[in-house]
Amino acid sequence: MPRREASDRLAWVAGVVAAAPGERVLEVGCGHGVLVTLLAAAVGDEGRVVAVDRSPRMGAAATRRNRAAVDAGRVRVVVAPLADAELGGEPVDVVVAADVRALWTPGPEWDVVDRVLAPDGRVVVAASLMDPGGGPRLVAGLTDLARARGLAVSTTASTTATRPYPTAAVELRRAAGG
Q1: Tens of pLDDT along 149-174?
Q2: Per-domain residue ranges of the chain
Q3: Per residue, what are the HEC states of 21-44?
Q4: Could you please report the per-residue DSSP string of 27-92?
Q5: Which residue ranges of the chain lie beneath pLDDT 70?
Q6: Rounded CA gap, 109 and 30, in Å?
Q7: GO molecular function: any one (predicted)?
Q8: CA-CA distance, 12 to 15, in Å (whole number)?
Q9: Which CATH number is associated with domain 8-174?
Q10: 112: helix, coil or strand?
Q11: Verdict on whether the full-model pTM lies above 0.85
């Protein structure tokens, strides 16, 4: 059976993340590992992707999808809630989450993000917008969360028309002096 390619939504999110060769990326809520595949290609042989999902079924699917990169040591799939995940001691350059509600509100997941994010790292949170006011609410909520964590909204990516709902993404970075 042929492997399903990335949806327009996940391809757009990968473009917003714009992972560079050699970067270390943490994807929260990796699901089937589709975005993991795109991120691993972007970071290349020198980069690393850690993919976390609380579902054993999704972790197994992400591992299967990315088998060659897992075997090469470029991708590591961790099955656990983010707050309990063993992520290793190396900081990450980018944390990305697409449609992961745990990062839309304050919680222990943000403690993990704060702990693993490199000093000049960034966080990209993307969401499907199921109602017209969703984009502004997402940005406002993430701005408040960011401020409380010493992060600032650096970029609000344009909303893009994906199916079945439009998608928006917000990039956060450590605030100057934070």
Answers
A1: 888 888 765 665 666 677 778 888 87
A2: 8-174
A3: CCCEEEEECCCCCHHHHHHHHHHC
A4: EES-TTSHHHHHHHHHHTTT-EEEEEES-HHHHHHHHHHTHHHHHTTSEEEEES-GGG----SS-E
A5: 1-4, 6, 132-135, 156-164, 175-178
A6: 15
A7: methyltransferase activity
A8: 5
A9: 3.40.50.150
A10: helix
A11: yes
